UniProtKB/TrEMBL annotation:
Pfam assignment, any one: Usp
UniProt-listed PANTHER family: STRESS RESPONSE PROTEIN NHAX, UNIVERSAL STRESS PROTEIN UP12
Record family assignment: Belongs to the universal stress protein A family.
SUPFAM superfamilies the UniProt entry points to: Adenine nucleotide alpha hydrolases-like
Native source species: Glutamicibacter mysorens
Family annotation (InterPro entries): Rossmann-like_a/b/a_fold, Universal_stress_UspA, UspA
Domain UspA: 2-125
Protein name (record): Nucleotide-binding universal stress UspA family protein
Length: 133
């Protein structure tokens, strides 16, 4: 089994990662962590830097799961990256974090979460940052 998680260093990203680790342990699954950015900003806090990458790598190794980290700094948006990787790896689950956005914010910026929920070929588990499970 393969699980794909969309990860950014934020409360929502942390909630998604923590749940994905739980699911990977429970199902003895491989976890693919996708951290991506369009690369359209000079400083992009959604993309993990080298230090954060190594901390994430150590955290996943300590969790005792099989994992891979995909980090993309340019190109397609996050939804496209997650959907593409999930399809290519035949993922059985996608885990994403949700943040509250206004209707106007969704209209102007689109919604990666909505696109993933509607277009994914496998189940999607979505969590809020304050989710207690």
């Amino acid at each position: 089994m393969t699980i794909v998680v969309g990860y950014i260093p934020s409360p929502e990203g942390e909630a998604a990662l923590e749940r994905a680790i739980i699911e990977a342990r429970r199902n003895e699954a491989r976890l693919i962590v996708v951290n991506s950015s369009k690369g359209d900003q000079l400083v992009d806090d959604r993309l993990i830097d080298a230090k954060q990458y190594h901390e994430l790598e150590a955290r996943l190794a300590e969790a005792g799961i099989d994992f891979w980290i995909e980090r993309h700094s340019q190109g397609a948006d996050a939804a496209d990256q997650i959907l593409h990787i999930a399809e290519a790896q035949r993922a059985e689950l996608i885990v994403i974090g949700l943040r509250k956005r206004t209707a106007m914010g969704k209209f102007l910026m689109g919604s990666n979460a909505q696109r993933i929920l509607l277009q994914a070929a496998c189940p999607v588990l979505s969590l809020k940052a304050s989710s207690d499970w």
